[in-house]
Amino acid sequence: MDAKIPPGPLADKWNYYKAHARLVNPANRKKMKVIVVGTGLAGASCAASLAEQGYAVDCFCFQDSSRRAHSVAAQGGVNACKNYKNDGDSVYRMFYDTIKGGDFRSREANVYRLAECSAALIDQAVAQGVPFAREYSGYLDNRSFGGVQVSRTFYARGQTGQQLLLGAYQALMRQVHTGKVALHTRHEMLDLVVVEGKAKGIIVRDLETGKLERYAADAVVLASGGYGKIYYLSTLAMGCNASAIWRAHKKGAYMAGVSWVQVHPTSLPQSGQHQSKLTLMSESLRNDGRIWVPLKAGDTRHPNDIPEPERDYYLERRYPSFGNLAPRDISSRAAKERIDAGHGVGAMKNAVYLDFSKAIGEQGKDKIAEKYGNLFTMYQKITGINAYAQPMLISPAAHFTMGGLWVDYTLMSTIAGLFVLGEANFSDHGANRLGANSLLQACVDGYFVAPYTIPDYLAGELKAEKVTTAHPAFDLAEALAQTKIDELLSIQGDLPADYFHKNLGRLLYDTCGLSRSKEGLERAIREIGELRQEFYRRLKVTGDDKVNTELEKAGRVADYLELGALMCRDALAREESCGAHFREEYQTEDGEAMRNDRDFCYVSAWEWQGADQPHVLHPEPLVFEQVALSTRSYK
């Protein structure tokens, strides 16, 4: 694998790339087409940017509107090193915070570019009308997120993702109106078409008719999000899935860092077996909220009746330098440790308290409501509890996937012409993502990186023979997609897809979630194999191959069963603890992660060999020239 990192000093690499990238002249752009799968921040911004340049774009999403992409669910903010607070922020500091936050398991060049492009994103969003919070003077306001000691997070109350997506949506719809973007809603990608080693199109299913359709292009972009929904109970919407990237993986695109899955520390706790998802409460709440549990295990008193000396503010105790703003992986594991030790609270004893009484006493209720009002309202609607009067109940929950399809510096996968953006790729976060870097990566990939790197690739395709949907590769891909549909419909067992999804999710959370062990992972690999066999014996898909949400679920769960096994193999092969990957056998005396830089300072990229064949590991060594590998400490 060639990461294609440009030469020169770290701070000059992106400028060097842009200066030497090949271009396509305006007349030729009209002759070329790009397919974009996904209309979240990464997909919408990429499609709009390429169309603005003059390329024809086919854009796909499975939702009924591109505005329903899951980017709307991101609440707390987007990072940028503007240093508006004059508190010591800089491109380098943001770069280092991100590298350290990912536990030194990401590429220096990609992360530096992310930090470098962050400032321009804020200007772009403001120009689009994104209503970021402002101080009384009119300047944009900032707050802090976990893993940093400066204020670099720009926010629009607790709905930053939604507001940023509205900006990208408007840019996208402008291009739809001009005719440069053809938007295909309610269409799900079922397969990637590869011709002579290059991505040349996709097979999609019209979810309103069940009809399979073919689309050809000169390049394909996957911006279809992450696979955190594999755990079933997660902060992701029910429709989120991994099928687009997994089908591309089976056509030759490597999957990288697959077991690096982030568990968010501030979700609402599970309240029963009836739930299909969990609700995320923004990490920004940790700016003013203090996290604690009763000092006495099994304490059932009302939180307001527990005096200060009998409360354990465990993050402030264990990580005094960062306190309640410790990174997500550390905060989640610390919460799990307290819950497992018998200090959990709530009806199921699976939560901790997030307390705003001190902040309300110092700043007043109106100020807290101004910053987090919609989050408090949402919390009360869901739980019936007024969090201004008593602490919130929060709990760790599966959230963001740092792993995804392997990409080089240009965001191209191991399949030429297949570009992967946002959470669908592995590129920027290493083994743990810092809060508010998710919206940033999606926007930077779509607005500032792909519009340079995709034309550079397309310049080399100008003289290539055009591939149309009549090519035999499309016949084969469509036949395979139809065969899979027919297989799922023909099983006619007695169990719905949700049964298998729930069982897979529970197994993964127990064995490949907040903590992992050799014994647990080996058991999970064995049991996932057994569950997969049962799936193909006992699956029951009601309905036909027309409009059928159960069929959609079944196809996605089939992919999850294969992906889940790879996640466990990836975690088993990495005999160290780093970031969100916490192997119980590799920890310090005080329970912190113990990295092994000598043997595992690489990104694990996996090649598909077949449904019943083991994946092949291709390690990409990580070279650190600007930062020294050090023990990650937030104490």
UniProtKB/TrEMBL annotation:
Cellular component GO terms, alphabetical: plasma membrane
Coiled coil stretches, renumbered: none
Keywords noted in UniProt: Cell membrane, Electron transport, FAD, Flavoprotein, Membrane, Oxidoreductase, Transport
Family: Belongs to the FAD-dependent oxidoreductase 2 family. FRD/SDH subfamily.
Pfam families per UniProt: FAD_binding_2, Succ_DH_flav_C
Enzyme class (EC, first level): oxidoreductase
Cofactor: FAD
Domain named FAD-dependent oxidoreductase 2 FAD-binding: residues: 34-439
Keyword Metal-binding: no
PANTHER family: SUCCINATE DEHYDROGENASE 2 FLAVOPROTEIN SUBUNIT (PTHR11632), SUCCINATE DEHYDROGENASE FLAVOPROTEIN SUBUNIT (PTHR11632:SF53)
Gene Ontology biological process terms in this record: anaerobic respiration
Subcellular location: Cell membrane
Species of provenance: Taibaiella chishuiensis
Catalytic activity, EC: 1.3.5.1
Name under which the protein is recorded: succinate dehydrogenase
Active site residues according to the UniProt entry: 328 (proton acceptor)
Ranges for domain Fumarate reductase/succinate dehydrogenase flavoprotein-like C-terminal: 501-634
